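Reminder to self: tokens first, then the designed residues, so the page reads top to bottom the way the pipeline ran.
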């Protein structure tokens, strides 16, 4: 595994046009100055980058994302990080991506912050989960890193959907071209021992540098298995750089039976599409239609909390994490409401919904923050509780 120094990558999270492009609905309501949470539980508590914290005790000093998922086999919780380092200072040993920390129990009330109790993949110190080499051709073309987008466990198997990054657009990276998303491909890896060893499905969704620029299968969010038995998945273009000028925030929806997903029969998916004047579920021969657009979406997260589907996403133009809700995955989504802005948390991104949130009106969000100052911790991951996605602050 090569050492991926921060100096070889640009501040991919920091080119944000904070506050620009706000419409009357947002700016007129004065929401950019709103408090970042409803003042319940944790309100920006750092989960790593603090000397002596529970992350560093597990060998992870600095990392981003911290995507939460439920380890249903033993009712514990996992957190999947992107690029991670052993210590909090930039330039210290690079762990890799993705990495994972876990905890025995989660306090949904927010009275106690998330505290990590062990690391994967071995239960010792944190290590890279996937077996691949950075800045190398691992059989699909040159790739810098594999960035996780979401994780889910069901039926005794754990799944991570990821994007392989061809370029971040840095001075030491392959050339960046406007309008290209910089991806190599997207894939799904699975583990049958709950995160110790990982295997890639043979099928991959080609990205920019394999001939499919702006693939709508670049970034996924597992909304969960609904009581109707289907696994619902939302997906969009890769925009981890936050510079994808063609992104536009378009999101699509598909669903698949859990057994078909486990077997890698991705062609068995059904797509939510607008056909002959109406929305309907179709087979895979009809591509999904765009259900949401115009949000300039970077990272996003959709989870079923109680009987409500909740969505959180980072608008890279507004520099703001917004939330929406719907009664069903294929129902109309509510008007987006800003909850955490870069006026309150500079250089923020992410905003992953914790599936163990107290309720659909009291969400826990895991938010990342970037610091491009040499010698400082490159990332923070922060916990916000008590967020009501349906209320204007």
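Designed residues (393 positions):
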């Amino acid at each position: 595994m090569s050492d991926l120094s921060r100096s070889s990558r640009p501040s991919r999270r920091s080119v944000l046009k904070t506050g620009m492009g706000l419409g009357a609905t947002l700016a007129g309501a004065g929401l950019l100055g709103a408090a970042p949470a409803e003042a319940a539980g944790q309100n920006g508590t750092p989960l790593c980058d603090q000397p002596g914290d529970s992350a560093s005790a597990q060998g992870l000093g600095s990392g981003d994302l911290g995507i939460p998922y439920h380890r249903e086999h033993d009712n514990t919780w996992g957190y999947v990080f992107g690029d991670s380092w052993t210590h909090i200072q930039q330039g210290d040993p690079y762990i890799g991506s993705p990495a994972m920390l876990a905890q025995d129990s989660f306090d949904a009330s927010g009275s106690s912050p998330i505290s990590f109790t062990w690391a994967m993949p071995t239960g010792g110190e944190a290590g890279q989960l996937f077996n691949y080499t950075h800045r190398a051709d691992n059989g699909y073309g040159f790739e810098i890193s594999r960035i996780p987008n979401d994780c889910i466990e069901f039926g005794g198997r754990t799944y991570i959907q990821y994007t392989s990054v061809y370029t971040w657009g840095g001075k030491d990276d392959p050339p960046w071209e406007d309008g290209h998303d910089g991806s190599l491909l997207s894939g799904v890896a699975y583990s049958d021992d709950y995160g110790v060893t990982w295997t890639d499905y043979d099928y991959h969704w080609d990205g920019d540098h394999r001939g499919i620029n702006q693939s709508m299968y670049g970034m996924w969010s597992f909304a969960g298995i609904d009581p109707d038995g289907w696994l619902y998945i939302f997906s969009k273009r890769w925009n981890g750089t936050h510079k994808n000028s063609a992104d536009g925030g378009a999101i699509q929806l598909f669903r698949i039976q859990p057994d078909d997903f486990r077997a890698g029969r991705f062609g068995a998916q059904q797509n939510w599409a607008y056909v002959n004047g109406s929305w309907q579920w179709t087979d895979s021969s009809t591509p999904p239609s765009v259900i949401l657009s115009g949000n300039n979406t970077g990272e996003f997260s959709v989870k079923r909390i109680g009987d409500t589907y909740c969505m959180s996403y980072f608008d890279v133009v507004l520099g703001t994490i917004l939330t929406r809700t719907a009664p069903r995955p294929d129902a109309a989504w509510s008007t987006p409401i800003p909850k955490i802005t870069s006026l309150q948390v500079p250089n923020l991104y992410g905003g992953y919904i914790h599936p163990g949130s107290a309720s659909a009106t009291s969400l826990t969000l895991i938010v990342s923050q970037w610091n491009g100052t040499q010698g400082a911790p490159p990332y923070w991951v922060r916990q916000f509780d008590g967020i009501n996605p349906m209320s204007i602050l």
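Confidence is low (pLDDT under 50) at residues 1-37.
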